[in-house]
Every structure is written in C-alpha cells, then in structure tokens.
Task: structure prediction
Amino acid sequence: MSSLVPRTALADGTLMDVLGYGVYKVPPDDTEELCSTALDVGYRLLDTAALYGNEAGVGAAARRYLETGTREDLFITSKVWNADHGYEATLRAFDASMELLGLDQLDLYLIHWPCPSKDLYVDTWRALERLRADGRVRSIGVSNFQEAHLERLLAETGVAPVLNQVELHPYLQQSGLRSFHERHGITTQAWSPLGRGNVLVDPEIGRIAAELGRTPAQVILRWHYQHDVLTIPKASSRERISSNLDIFGFTLDDAHLSALDALDRDQRFGSHPDTVG
Ligand SMILES: NC(=O)c1ccc[n+]([C@@H]2O[C@H](COP(=O)([O-])OP(=O)(O)OC[C@H]3O[C@@H](n4cnc5c(N)ncnc54)[C@H](OP(=O)(O)O)[C@@H]3O)[C@@H](O)[C@H]2O)c1
Result:
C-alpha cells in the first residue's frame, strides 16, 4: 500500500511525505514496534538520528515493512551528530548509521546542528555532497541552521540544502527563516511540531479543535500543512500515532489560520542553535 500522506517535491526532485513519524526519545527497545505501528496505520516517513540511539529499531521496522512493501514507498531520514562534524568523521558516522539501519541507501541525511563553535559545518556539508554523489543518500539537508549558516554554505559551496529541519510550532513560527527558505528553494520541516506537547493545551487551539470536532494535535499539524511546513510528530500509542496522521480530511479557514498565526511568541521548548555545539 502506498502512502496515505501527500508528498511534496524537494528542490532536487525527490518526493517526500509532508508528515512522518519522529522517534526522538522513543526507547530503543520500543522503536521497532512503534515504527511498525506507524507504518501499519499509514506513515511512510521515519525520522531518526545517530543521537537517538534507536536507528537499529527504525531499520528493523523498515526491513519488516519491505517483506511485503516496496523501498520507494518508504522515506528514512537520519542525522550526523555534533561529535562527528568534519569531512572524514562524517563519512564514518554515515557508515555507522547505515550499518545500524541495515539499508543500502538513505533517503535524507541531515547535519543535526550547525555547532558554530566547532566551525566545521562546511566540511561536514562537503561530506554530505560526496555521499549524495556516490548515491548512498538521495537528498541532503540540514537541521537547526539559521540564516547566517545557510548563507555561508551557499557562499562557500554553491549548494543549498534541500531542507532545513527546525523547531517550529504555533508558539515559534520562524517567519523570517521560512521566507529565507522560500527564496532559496529550501523546504521547511518542523521538529517538535506540537511544542513537545506543550502547545496542545492552548485554549485558542482547544476552541478551534472543539469547533471542528478535531483534536488539538490535528489542528496544529493541519496548520503546519496549510503553511507548507512538513511535520514529524512523535507519539507513543497507536491511537495518537494514528490520529496525528488524520489531518487530510478537513480544512482550517482563514479565521482559524489567523487565530493560530496570532499565537506566535518566539517561545522555544528545545535548545537555541547558538548554544549547541
Ligand atoms: N533536529 C532536531 O534537532 C530535533 C529536535 C527534536 C525533535 N526532532 C524530531 O522531531 C520529532 C518530534 O518532536 P518532539 O518529539 O520533540 O515533540 P512533538 O512531536 O512536538 O511532541 C511530542 C509530545 O506530544 C505528545 N503527543 C503526541 N501526539 C499527541 C496527541 N495526539 N495527543 C496528546 N499528546 C500527544 C507525545 O506524547 P506521547 O509520546 O506520550 O504519546 C509527546 O510528549 C522527534 O521525535 C524527532 O524526530 C528533531
């Protein structure tokens, strides 16, 4: 069965699901089962990272899916961790991730954080370019990059990432960065799209959810979708995993969108990219 989720074309032509299952903080022992649940209810994109320590579980679920499904239907993302910045270290880190995933090719590989204090993200980016040229990964991108970091990659390598995965939810809407992405053909993907659960209790979101007969999570994920922002919500029960996917059968009208847009307050629930390194 192909995806229930619409796909969007990245700047390099790769088609990518607009919504996937993220596995940060999913315990390694539960990862295969929860990813298999996600695949069973219709997800096809799984978002992991070397840091999460659960690439083996993601790979096991992907390989279980491939017993009956096709590789083209799946979309697997992983990320190179901060300790592995630099050209050679990144190539080694990629090999280690692929060994754990047990796959021949990755769909998307990201630089997890720019780590400006290390000042190695341009070398790291050149390693990702090499991996793509060698056909080991289909698309390459970044995460937590701010405008200045993206400008530098463009200036020094001439190659823009196809995607930047950043913290983004109604309390942190990143409008300046999103405009920059639009000008440079970079797709925006939101991590912590639900603000790690904190935004779900917002009264305005609750009001809209009640009006539409939807959950607060569905309203937030639909808001991202209507703003062309990709999402990778994490959840730990079949019911939540499944209901978070059910956002393609209703629409937020202009009044709903304006009310949600008005919630922006520059509030992070994760780290600021300047402080991670
Ligand atoms: N690139 C980066 O630096 C970076 C950083 C952070 C995260 N990420 C990625 O983004 C993914 C998502 O971010 P996140 O896990 O931080 O936060 P999130 O998806 O915004 O929120 C997850 C939280 O919301 C709860 N939740 C999910 N669906 C719900 C529902 N329908 N009803 C009520 N509660 C619900 C979950 O609870 P339960 O788990 O208890 O169900 C969990 O506590 C991660 O898994 C990871 O793949 C990337």
About this structure: The two ends are 41 Å apart (CA to CA). The mean pLDDT is 97. Residues 87-101 form the longest helix (15 residues). Residues 168 and 174 are 7 Å apart (CA to CA).
